[in-house]
């Protein structure tokens, strides 16, 4: 299945697309292929850009005192933007953990599209609300949990990330050292 | 200024309202007054409800092993919902830190309103996107910071909360004990 069909399939979970809508979506030339390891966003970059992952895995990270601190992973059908204020500058980096196909858009493209197809605004509102609820819930769980509980939550809810992402990125994401993560994994393996 | 005018003023920062829109908003009977200390949402409650704070301050918290763990505060012009899945049950509680005026709505009301005034969907999309960016940024900062840095960030970005919210709720929100918070405040006071 090509990238375009994947996008159409995703959108059609929420609303069927007309031939006209499909054709305008195709015209936009939204799809970009990035190789594993490629940095697609840097600190200081313009923020009028929106990423929607169709295939692959992206890692977001800050550089603090020369050290990378991973804060998020985005995989199939997840989107992220560096900042809602499109006049701002990005505070973080994003790079591909795998070869990835990513839909890249900006506010001008979105405006044209919403004007032509207002019902896409409904879709975008729904997706924003879903993502907002997910991020809030993840934040709550992070606050309420010990590092070990955070790891268990990740294994239970995002088992794919454990397989796809190198362990030192997972450790950084959980706010612990790779050594602590190995210890946690060791303890849990004994319990099974 | 009454609650209704406050709501209109808030919306008009984003788009002017017609007389018709104002009148429909008034008819909905959206405004509710809650006294300080009142619990407005409990664990297990239905989630088809949306809160928009017009005046006052709401605290969200989980009860873990009999202990309240504060995860969020919402004040003027901030909104929250227990879950995006309106079939779910709330996992957390919300109570008023101050006497509060809160706009309470549900999905049925929103649907009627969006159908009558589609451009409100644009507003809701924009607000969701703004809030999403804010929550993500807060989450990143929380992950990247020590408890002292989290407190400094709160003082700099939400000085009103420091004044409005009892210190033991602030400590819980920062993930530390009230004693640790007092120590941090002591250390910072000496630096000034």
Q: Could you describe the largest sheet of chain A, including whether it forms a barrel?
A: 4 strands, antiparallel
Q: Provide the succession of SSEs of chain A.
A: HHEEEEEEEEHHHHHH
Number of beta-strand segments of chain A: 8
- The share of residues in helices of chain A is 40-55%
The rough form of chain A would be described as: globular
The termini of chain A sit apart by: 39 Å
Strand fraction of chain A equals 15-25%
Structure characterization notes:
The structure is a homodimer of 192-residue chains. Chain A is α+β, with helices and mostly antiparallel strands. Helix content of chain A is 49%, strand content 21%. In chain A, the strands form 2 sheets. In chain A, strands 1-8-3-6 form a 4-stranded antiparallel β-sheet. The longest helix of chain A is centred in the C-terminal third of the chain and has 26 residues, at 119-144. Chain A is globular and about 55 Å long. Chains A and B meet through strand 5 and helix 4 of A and strand 5 and helix 4 of B.
């Amino acid at each position: 299945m090509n990238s375009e069909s994947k996008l159409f399939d995703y959108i059609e979970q929420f609303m069927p697309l007309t031939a006209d809508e499909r054709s305008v979506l195709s015209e936009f030339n939204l799809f970009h292929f990035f190789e594993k390891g490629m940095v697609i966003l840097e600190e200081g970059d313009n923020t009028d850009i929106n990423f929607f992952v169709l295939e692959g895995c992206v890692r977001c990270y800050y550089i603090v005192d020369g050290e990378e601190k991973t804060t998020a992973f985005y995989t199939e059908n997840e989107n992220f933007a560096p900042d809602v204020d499109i006049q701002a500058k990005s505070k973080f980096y994003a790079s591909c953990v795998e070869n990835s196909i990513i839909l890249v858009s900006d506010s001008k493209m979105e405006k044209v599209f919403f004007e032509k197809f207002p019902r896409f605004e409904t879709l975008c509102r729904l997706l924003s609300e879903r993502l907002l609820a997910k991020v809030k819930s993840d934040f709550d769980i992070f606050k309420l949990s010990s590092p070990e509980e955070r790891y268990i939550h990740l294994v239970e809810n995002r088992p794919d990330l454990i397989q796809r992402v190198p362990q030192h990125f997972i450790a950084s994401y959980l706010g612990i050292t790779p050594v602590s993560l190995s210890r946690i994994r060791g303890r849990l393996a004994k319990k099974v």
